[in-house]
Design goal:
This protein is an alpha/beta fold. It has helices spanning 32-43, 57-65, 76-80, 92-102, 120-130, 174-186, 196-222, 227-232, 236-242, 249-258, 260-283, 286-302; strands at 22-28, 47-53, 71-72, 85-88, 111-114, 137-138, 140-142, 163-166, 190-193. It is built from 12 helices and 9 strands. Helix 5 (120-130) links the parallel strand 5 and strand 6.
Length: 313
């Protein structure tokens, strides 16, 4: 018998289990993900010191006041200099330039991680920006977050039981990949490993295209003459379907740009499916339409989510 309930979130490792120790953690980009990483790292006693950098001085002040970081840095280079763990929690388009800014301050043993939603472009950016030092950079994608942004929404348990995809570079020694895995497990994550290209193909289907469709759907309604009146009648189903349309526009522009080929491929498959549904509507083939709906409904019930779908990014 097929269960109608989604599978439970994987159990998080005990905080502090197999915790590697770092002297200085530098968080570059103290927003929802960067701030949550810092809080979780403090809970796990991952580092003796947590320093943050943001282009916005008010963000750093808020992060210090909330106890997210110990103190702020005036530049990304200053934050990364002397750090043995550096986390880049910035939009994917900013990762390459940021790596170039901090390269001269990196120690030979420092571990570098990111939290971006695309990986092939990040891997290429790291290779170009860091040269031989790219061996220290392990691209990562925690499947956690929300449509909300900003350090004020940071959560110490954001990564508990969440899938974290680690996408090693060919240049990564095993010890850096192992260290990256241990870091995420110490923060409560459940690690999966795949190549950057495999990651981007998969997430174009299950994350990037759904966001594009949500944006387009809300846009299509809002631009109609009676759009505002229609929206006033919207209920829980509309809210659930369109929640991710409230996500950060700049971040998602960068994601679509970075993974456009894979998103376009998934979009073509979606358009074919919609055309099939439309054909049944036009022809009045209600039994065939019901069959298509039934297949989709069954697939949704059969789906076993690695983490709650409404937290995927």
């Amino acid at each position: 018998m097929v269960s109608r309930n989604p599978s439970p979130r994987p159990a998080a490792p005990e905080p502090g289990a197999l915790t590697p120790q770092f002297r200085r953690l530098a968080v570059l980009g103290v927003g929802l993900l960067g701030g949550s990483f810092a809080l979780a790292a403090k809970r796990a006693a991952l580092a003796r010191e947590v320093v943050g950098y943001s282009k916005s001085p008010s963000t750093i002040q808020a992060a210090i006041k909330a106890g997210v970081i110990d103190h702020g840095a005036d530049s990304a280079l200053q934050a990364a200099t002397g750090a043995d763990l550096v986390v880049l929690a910035v939009p994917v388009a900013a990762i390459g330039p940021l790596l170039r800014q901090i390269r001269l301050g990196l120690s030979d043993s420092a571990l570098l991680l990111d939290v971006g939603s695309t990986k092939a472009d990040v891997a290429d950016a790291a290779l170009h920006a860091l040269g031989e030092a790219a061996r220290q950079f392990v691209p990562c994608h925690p499947i956690a977050g929300s449509e909300r942004s900003g350090v004020q929404h940071a959560q110490v348990d954001l990564f508990d039981g969440r899938r974290v995809v680690v996408t090693p570079l060919e240049a990564n020694p095993a010890r850096f990949v192992d260290a990256a895995t241990q870091v995420w497990e110490a923060l409560g994550g459940v690690v999966s490993v795949m190549s950057p290209h495999e990651h981007d193909a998969a997430f174009a289907a299950v994350s990037h295209l759904p966001h594009l469709l949500a944006f387009a759907f809300v846009y299509a309604i809002a631009r109609q003459p009676q759009g505002s009146s229609f929206l006033q009648l919207a209920g829980p189903g509309f809210r659930d379907f369109t929640r991710i349309a409230g996500s950060d526009p700049t971040m998602w522009r960068d994601v679509f740009q970075a993974n456009s080929a894979e998103v376009l491929q998934q979009l073509q498959m979606f358009k074919q499916a919609v055309a099939g549904f439309e054909a049944q509507l036009r022809q009045g083939n209600w039994s065939v339409l019901e069959s298509l709906i039934r297949q989709a409904s069954q697939s949704r019930r059969d789906w076993a989510s690695p983490s709650p779908a409404d937290d995927a990014t």
